[in-house]
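Fold these two proteins, one after the other.
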Amino acid sequence: MIYISIPVHNEGRTIGLLLWKIRKVMAEFGRPYEICVFDDASTDETPKVLSRYAGLIPLHQIRSDERVGYGRAIERLVRSVVDRSAYPKRDVMVTLQGDFTEDPEAIVVMVKKIEGGADLVAGNPSSVGAAVPAPVRACRRLAPIVLGRTFSRAPVKDSLSGFRAYRMIVLKKALRELQDDQMLLTSGGWGANLELLLRVAPYVRRIEEAEFAMGSFRRERASRFRAIQTLRTLVGLRGTVWPRTPERP
């Protein structure tokens, strides 16, 4: 089973288009799948859009009436799909954004790499073009400087991207190592993506990457990206030591 997991907050203009595209991609791919959406206290049309798709696609919804943020939304999704997975050594979790800035076509490439023996496939944006907001481009230039060796020694080119595929067993093992009431993720945004990679790295035997087009879709809302807040979060992760380097082909 492929669990395509999407955290959303006020993505009413894009989430329907994204779900429809995923449906088309997965129908052609021919693998069993479920789309898991965490609705992080949306106040726009997002709940109505999700309800319309509930009978058309295999959709599992989680709703929070209080805003929890990206990091906790990803953690809730991880915990949910791990609990739902019947075959963790075969099942796959794919994480991507709900604003249609990451191409669902890459899901097929990622899953095939998992089927070929990888435990984790990290999305790597092939380019960061003019369609990407300027603060995002600036942060991508500054992140390697802010993180230092934590960035340069990461087992993937882009440790900040949240577009990834995980073999479910590595997520299950990472959760198993937590103490009672310990959170898997403590950061938000890009920091949460980096943290999750740090958490699963000890259990990943082989890691691969998959390129995807970033910023190639029309933006339907103003960017909510906050450059200063993001950089402050990354500063807090500077100096973090990678537990080990997974095998790369």
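Now the second one:
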Amino acid sequence: MIALAEEIVELDFFSKILDKQATDLYKESPFLPLKNLSSSSKGANLEKLVTELLLQKGYTVTSRSNKGHDRVINGKKVEIKGSLLWGTGTHFRWQQIRTGQDYDILCCVAVYPDKVELYAASKEDCKKYLEVQNEKGEWLYNQHGGKKTNSGAFWMNGFPQDFPWLKDIEDLL
């Protein structure tokens, strides 16, 4: 079977794709190519963004010293997690935050359609605020395996201001 493009664009699923593109917050953003990358490519490129931006601002940035972090910045081991806005701009989602890894600082990159903001937290604060259980014993920020288990991987859903323990990255470097 061969279906011509004219035939495919008339199908219902395709109009849903077009509707999603029309409402995409990044459709006119210079960051649209970044948004369209696969998750792993996006992460690698956000690490490069942080590297180049901080080098430009006069920080010392070197490659990681082991697999427990992404970069060494001003002598501190930094794990970099990035996110673009999800859905209709309802939140960011920083994922795969592992408090057992070898880093001093977690860097959360927030990519808005018109700007990038870098936030950070010490590993101690990550442990304090992400490795928490409610009164039912549920792990509030656990990413894998449901709320009853501590998988060692956590996530943060919201905006930077929803996490008052996040600081401007320059305050921790």
